[in-house]
Amino acid sequence: MTMPDLNSFGHDPWWLMLAKCLAIFVFLLLTVLVAILVERKVLGRMQMRFGPNRVGPFGLLQSLADGVKLALKEGLIPAGVDKPLYLLAPVIAVIPAIMAFAVIPMGGLVSVFGHTTPLQLTDLPVAVLYVLAVTSIGVYGIVLAGWSSGSTYPLLGGLRSSAQVISYEIAMALSFVAVFLYAGTMSTSGIVAAQSGTWFVFLLLPSFLVYVVSMVGETNRAPFDLPEAEGELVGGFHTEYSSLKFAMFMLAEYVNMTTVSALATTMFLGGWQAPFPFNMIDGANSGWWPLLWFVAKVWTFMFLYMWLRATLPRLRYDQFMALGWKLLIPVSLGWIVVVAISRTMRRDGSPGWVSALISLGAVLAVVLVLLIRRTVRRNAIPEFSLPSDPGAVSVYPVPPIPSPPRRSAPAPTPREHSDV
């Protein structure tokens, strides 16, 4: 098995680079079409009902029919919009989502018409930072869509999205620091090569859990779909959009889901390397087989998205912000310190079990602190009896409702004294 590195890129002819770009674009479009259909099927089964089963055999053409229907709808533009930004916002949301896939490794070295090339468009010494930068730009499409619509509810959705990307982009970036410390590089192909022995999901489990939560919040998916919460914001940032402009926002959402799932595969699940027990087969990590393992891992995360949507209710916005700022970011910072100490001890010659014991102790300490904090908060909440129902006891600190003030009787008017 030959691992590609940074020297493997930049030598392809122009037609091969163009073919790679086209292949990535087609792969993402087909993934979106299949993901929409699979999500509706999975949600239907989880909710004990049928999914799409009318359009085409077994409903397989439902996604294609929905796309044609959206394209044929009338594209309405409200009178009060900022038209240039209103039309540009869906484009800003879609293009960065596709650009981020340029540095995702989908396989090792293969031979294409006599040219040996990696199954990856390109790579950079700071490829992961490139992905973070591009995906954060894509959220500006949502922000501008909400602002330019000239309506209250889209504006609130755009504001929520801006706060959301600031909160969870920080947590996502911090979850990568431990990976950089272990891999010694920010190149995506180098990170995959560093996991040839043990995947980072086993060595850096807290970072993986933080990233999984952050990627759901970053893509505005349930239970973190606060920018498009139809319960209180009608449709959120895309309320005023229709036809192909609305379809582009849906395309951007599913392409972002695919991109962050591919990034999770690259950073924590060994990338395109075969899982156990297939890695014991000779040739499982050579040729075109790695593309199969990569797609299978990506679809594992895609199924997780669908499972969460069918299972969990939407969070309140204060809970959502508290999860990012009060839990994910502090845990990531503490875990970075633990990983740095562990790597330094390994470099200085300490045995591996010592660093493993330190990491395990840190994880157990965090879990213990969270359990104690939860218990203390529960015990610290006073209980009040509601005046309307003396027998009912509230779990939340509800103060007693003051009784309305009594209206004083009007003062008697003084009698007039007669002269008699």
UniProtKB/TrEMBL annotation:
<dbReference type="GO" id="GO:0048038">
    <property type="term" value="F:quinone binding"/>
</dbReference>
<comment type="function">
    <text>NDH-1 shuttles electrons from NADH, via FMN and iron-sulfur (Fe-S) centers, to quinones in the respiratory chain. The immediate electron acceptor for the enzyme in this species is believed to be ubiquinone. Couples the redox reaction to proton translocation (for every two electrons transferred, four hydrogen ions are translocated across the cytoplasmic membrane), and thus conserves the redox energy in a proton gradient. This subunit may bind ubiquinone.</text>
</comment>
<feature type="transmembrane region" description="Helical">
    <location>
        <begin position="254"/>
        <end position="275"/>
    </location>
</feature>
<keyword id="KW-1278">Translocase</keyword>
<dbReference type="InterPro" id="IPR018086">
    <property type="entry name" value="NADH_UbQ_OxRdtase_su1_CS"/>
</dbReference>
<feature type="compositionally biased region" description="Pro residues">
    <location>
        <begin position="397"/>
        <end position="413"/>
    </location>
</feature>
<comment type="similarity">
    <text>Belongs to the complex I subunit 1 family.</text>
</comment>
<keyword id="KW-1003">Cell membrane</keyword>
<protein>
    <recommendedName>
        <fullName>NADH-quinone oxidoreductase subunit H</fullName>
        <ecNumber>7.1.1.-</ecNumber>
    </recommendedName>
</protein>
<feature type="transmembrane region" description="Helical">
    <location>
        <begin position="85"/>
        <end position="104"/>
    </location>
</feature>
<keyword id="KW-0472">Membrane</keyword>
<keyword id="KW-0520">NAD</keyword>
<feature type="transmembrane region" description="Helical">
    <location>
        <begin position="287"/>
        <end position="308"/>
    </location>
</feature>
<feature type="transmembrane region" description="Helical">
    <location>
        <begin position="124"/>
        <end position="145"/>
    </location>
</feature>
<feature type="transmembrane region" description="Helical">
    <location>
        <begin position="320"/>
        <end position="341"/>
    </location>
</feature>
<feature type="transmembrane region" description="Helical">
    <location>
        <begin position="197"/>
        <end position="216"/>
    </location>
</feature>
<dbReference type="GO" id="GO:0016655">
    <property type="term" value="F:oxidoreductase activity, acting on NAD(P)H, quinone or similar compound as acceptor"/>
</dbReference>
<dbReference type="InterPro" id="IPR001694">
    <property type="entry name" value="NADH_UbQ_OxRdtase_su1/FPO"/>
</dbReference>
<dbReference type="GO" id="GO:0003954">
    <property type="term" value="F:NADH dehydrogenase activity"/>
</dbReference>
<keyword id="KW-0830">Ubiquinone</keyword>
<feature type="transmembrane region" description="Helical">
    <location>
        <begin position="14"/>
        <end position="38"/>
    </location>
</feature>
<feature type="transmembrane region" description="Helical">
    <location>
        <begin position="353"/>
        <end position="372"/>
    </location>
</feature>
<keyword id="KW-1133">Transmembrane helix</keyword>
<feature type="transmembrane region" description="Helical">
    <location>
        <begin position="166"/>
        <end position="185"/>
    </location>
</feature>
<feature type="region of interest" description="Disordered">
    <location>
        <begin position="387"/>
        <end position="420"/>
    </location>
</feature>
<keyword id="KW-0874">Quinone</keyword>
<dbReference type="GO" id="GO:0009060">
    <property type="term" value="P:aerobic respiration"/>
</dbReference>
<comment type="subunit">
    <text>NDH-1 is composed of 14 different subunits. Subunits NuoA, H, J, K, L, M, N constitute the membrane sector of the complex.</text>
</comment>
<keyword id="KW-0812">Transmembrane</keyword>
<dbReference type="GO" id="GO:0005886">
    <property type="term" value="C:plasma membrane"/>
</dbReference>
<dbReference type="Pfam" id="PF00146">
    <property type="entry name" value="NADHdh"/>
</dbReference>
